[in-house]
Amino acid sequence: MNHLPVLVVVIPVAGAFLISLVDTVRPAFKSTAALLVATAHSTTLVAAAYRGMTGPALLYSVGEWIAPVGISLMVDSFSAFFLLLLAIGHLASALVRIESGDRSEWARKSAALIALFFAALSGITVTADLFNLFIFVELATVCSIGLIARKRHPGSAVAGFVALMAATISGALLLFAVLVLYVATGTVAMPLVAQAAPDLPAHLHGMATAAIIVSFGIKIGLVPMHFWQPRTYHAAGTTVAAILSAFGLKIHVYALLRLLWFPLQAPVVLPGVYSILLVMGMVNILTGHSMAMIERNLVRMLAFSSIAHVGYILLGVAAAGRIGGSAAVYAVAAALFHTGMHTLMKSALFWSGHRLIHLSRSSRIMDLGGIAWRAPGSIIAFSLAALAIIGIPPTGGFASKWFVAMAQQALLPVLVIGAGTVISLVYYGRFFLIATRRDPPDSFPAPHPLSLRPRLQTAVVLALAVAAVMAGTRDVQVRSLLLRAAEGLVDQADFVGPALIGRGR
Amino acid sequence: MESPVIRVFLTRLTAGFLCLLLSLGFVVLLLDAGRHRAQTIPTQMEEPYTARSVAETGSINVVTAILMDYRAFDTLGEATVIFASVAVAAAILGKPGSPSNRTMGLLSRRQLSALLPLFFIFPLFVIFHGHLSPGGGFQGGVSLAVLVILIHVAFGDRFGEEVIPHRILALSEYGAAIGLVGIGFVGIFQGSAYLANVAAGFPRGTAGTLASGGVIPLLNLLVGMKVAAGLSSIYVHLAGHEAENVPEKRR
Amino acid sequence: MMQTAAYLTAAGVFAIGLYGMLTQRDMIKICISISIMDSSFVMALVAAAYVPGGAAPIAGFEALRFVDPLPHALALTAIVIGAGILAIALALTVAVYRHYGTTDIARLFIATREDS
Predict the structure, then answer these.
(1) DSSP per position, A205-248
(2) Which end of chain A is more exposed for a tag (fewer CB within 10 A), N or C?
(3) Are strands A58-61 and A72-75 parallel, antiparallel or unpaired?
(4) What predicted TM-score, i.e. pTM, was given to this entire model?
(5) What is C2-113's CATH topology?
(6) Are B131 and B225 members of one domain?
(7) Do B29 and A204 touch (CB under 8 A)?
(8) How confident is the model over B7-27, as pLDDT tens digits?
């Protein structure tokens, strides 16, 4: 048996325990331990993703108990794509977060919390059990609230509480959906629920789907449920906001897609839900971009931009669900392309923005005038990532938006995508003009004493931004990877098949 | 013109109405789901656990067999949630400082010091008999944490800190957590799966005796330790401040 | 019949918890509401496990039928997760109270708006 599916969860969990132990016994080695854990976890993730992409789906039974009684884990090409994103995420956030001098309790715990957060995200990605999914979603919530509520910043405790209330409602709805599915089908294993889903009464199926969409809609910021996100990202600060937006949000999108396609069988049983998702996607794009345009704070602007880009992903997803059949693979691939691109672009934007905010000690856009001349590396990375996220032709952001637009069957979503591009050009362009103003104020305040390592951070950020730009010119290689990943979601034959073999045992 | 009183009343009325509607909808859905299951699944093969758990795990308490063997991965996940929330509480509140030294009256303290050793019997019984009777690591661990809290409340936080230092709590929590994750690897090294019990060669023992159930009693012990240490340190973090004595600011 | 009554009780408790979360402004009261909502899910899980005439799922008992043990295990997990979330909510409340001297969430919104 190949142990990779369980190792991607267990290694960072054990790593987080070890980091805490090292921090209590020998605090000096904490950063080294965190980096080691991140490296080990990323290596495992890449190995698991490689196996998931190249071979048939990897199925793992924890404790050798097969689906009806035990918990199955599973890595197929679709989850492999998200495992790759997590591998980038854990390593990059460990590199960015290497701190010097900060001895506050929050800084001490945050290394372990980041490892646990990525463990929870990996767990969401690999699990094939509904209740296990619920546990990992809650673990991710707990860790993210710990990361949000920094001690140095008292307002962040309020933002953390708001996020906690939103997460409680989201968790209650998810638990309720799991309970209904369990009572109706007698199992919480995804393959077996998938088998029983077509026979469910329509109202049961519909309400369970609705509960799951609202539950994950709160997590990913679908428009009426997005209220907590900008406040939270602003309070969390750029380093953490990048982790939440670029990686946490994407894995919750993954969970929503996996649940819709696999246990609920929505493309077959309930195709109407995709029309709702299409409308929600368009609303998200327009609201997110227009709120970002009137926003005067850099972090909140980037947060609203995240909400808009969830809309692009949803447009691709909705198109896939409405087409159905093999053509859906292309639409899912487009949605995945945008997911990957947004991960790279948004982490680059937040982390390069971190350096700018750190230098001027304010996140208000007007206070950042002329800051470009003090951090040229960061502003180059920021501009590259901004070009990509606006969708200027040779970049990866353009290619992914183009594919999402090509997948649409109606004109209106294409027009919305175009309008969103124009609006984002306005607000990113405005920020660029302010940041590169020639007349910088005479004296910037002294930088914050708890300085991060700027060179390492700039290098990481530049690498992410360049990757986001280059992906557009390498689209042949990228496309084969994406199509393989999309097949994992749409053609579940290799997912359902092996999982059901164990049923008779 | 609406007065604010009417507006608040109307808001609450709408909220209450919505809540009632939602929860009644939940009841209807759950009942329908139960009816659907009764129609589709014959009653003989209803649930797979009770018939097989004794033979497969050696634990006669089926709920413990599920928690610690069939779905032990869930248990690892929830132990991690407790671990994470201890870390989060510590991160938010910082080091427990300026503990209050309020104690209970002399009579209660004298009584407690005689009774406390007896109080420890129950949680230990619950933990060690988890695979035989209702109970297990979580329940026993919580009862142990209650005893730690009782020491703090009765004898004052300063005395509690002297008897059970916070560092010891943290170290035993990390140790139990690492042990819990580590035991899972035994399954991998034995050529079975992660967290495997009998399949990894742990002895099943005679069902119904104390030494049965393979690795289940050990997992119960570790989970109990971890939960007890975790919940106690959450209490220490929450209670170790005098801030609660400051009256609320009014406008 | 028994099961319907149990579901109705759980639903009533859930409605109380949700109502409290939606209408209360005090953070401690919101924490209490969160806790009440968690309990309602435990009740619903136990009700879902009910089998008429079923005994507790311990193999030593002489009984014809046993209740479904899986929801009991899930309920235990849900309790622990709820406790973890509640601990964080209380910790946030303490932190907020220490800094702002109030636990009124509406007043805190006004107080934190100036930070941004």
Answers:
(1) HHHHHHHHHHHHHHHHT-GGG-THHHHHHHHH-HHHHHIIIIII
(2) C
(3) antiparallel
(4) 0.94
(5) Helix Hairpins (1.10.287)
(6) yes
(7) yes
(8) 889 999 999 999 999 999 999
Mean pLDDT of A169-188: 94
HSE at residue A251, side-chain half, CA atoms within 13 A, is 27
Structural domain including B195 reads 54-245
Q: Count of domains in chain B?
A: 2
Among left, alpha and beta (phi > 0; psi -120 to 50; other), residue B195 is left
Together in a domain, B37 and B120: no
Nearest to A159 by CA among C37, C82, C34, C111: C111
The whole-number pLDDT of residue A69 equals 87
**Among C82, C86, C111, residue whose Cα is nearest residue C28:** C86
Dist. CA B158–CA B139, nearest whole Å: 27
Range of the domain at A312: 271-441+453-490
Q: Report residue A164 CA to chain centroid gap.
A: 18
The answer to whether A77 and A48 are in contact (CB under 8 A) is no
- What total number of domains does chain A contain? 1
Tell me the residues of C at the A interface, defined by beta carbons under 8 Å apart.
Answer: 21, 27, 30, 34, 37, 41, 44-45, 48, 70-71, 74, 77-78, 81, 84-85, 88-89, 92-93, 95-96, 99-100, 105, 108-109, 111-112, 115-116
The number of residues in chain C equals 116
Q: How confident is the model at residue A501 (pLDDT cuts 50, 70, 90)?
A: very low
pLDDT level of residue A285 (50, 70, 90 thresholds): very high
Instruction: Enter the DSSP assignment of A439.
Output: S
Structure token pair of residue A293: 């345009």
A71 touches A132 (CB < 8 A): yes
Confidence of residue A452 (pLDDT cuts 50, 70, 90): low
The closest CB to that of C81, out of A135, A183, A297, belongs to A135
